[in-house]
From TrEMBL:
Domain MobA-like NTP transferase span(s) in chain numbering: 9-158
KW Nucleotide-binding (keyword) present: yes
Keyword flag Transit peptide: no
Main location: cytoplasm
Cofactors: Mg(2+)
Family designation: Belongs to the MobA family.
Entry's Gene Ontology BP terms: Mo-molybdopterin cofactor biosynthetic process
Notes on the domains: The N-terminal domain determines nucleotide recognition and specific binding, while the C-terminal domain determines the specific binding to the target protein.
Protein name (Swiss-Prot/TrEMBL): Probable molybdenum cofactor guanylyltransferase
Gene Ontology terms: cellular component: cytoplasm
Gene Ontology molecular function: GTP binding; metal ion binding; molybdenum cofactor guanylyltransferase activity
Amino acid sequence: MIENKQIVGIVLSGGKSSRMGTEKGLVKWKGKSLIEYSVDCLRNTCKNIVVSSNKDCYDYLSLPVVADEIKDCGPIGGIYSCMKAVKADYYLVLACDVPNVPFQLFNDLLLNIGNADAIFPTDKGERGQPLISVYKASCFKVIEEELLKGNYKMMKLLGLLTTKTFSVSEELTYFNPKMLSNANSLHDINFL
């Protein structure tokens, strides 16, 4: 159980949105912008939330917006910049394009992280979802070292950390078959 630990939520919305054709986090789905779903999900688990973005279009959320300190290095750069800007014991990371993630998933990730540096969900034994995850503060130095070497691949980073996976299955009371589905294009929105 995670008690008396500082937990910060990081919403990743710093991508170029090239496949979406417009700012991904601002795309409306069922009456709300995609980023609002991510913020609402994290609010159920942590008080402090920051948005990783290089744009000021998210000021309306009244949350701190952290720009990438090292530009053009993908999600790893956003995670690094937010970890550097806001100190915590645990960082709940959630991309802005997965609106069906239930907050209960983050509770389970926190409860199951144990001695690992990071934990992320997997669906039916498939590849994990490192942008729906919990990272401990201990990951910061490894992330920084990889960035300084020019290594920006999330899966390579995960190979350097002690990680755990959490299997998402029908047995979970909050299960939704689309809970890990993301939207990379306007077409994808129709299938969420």
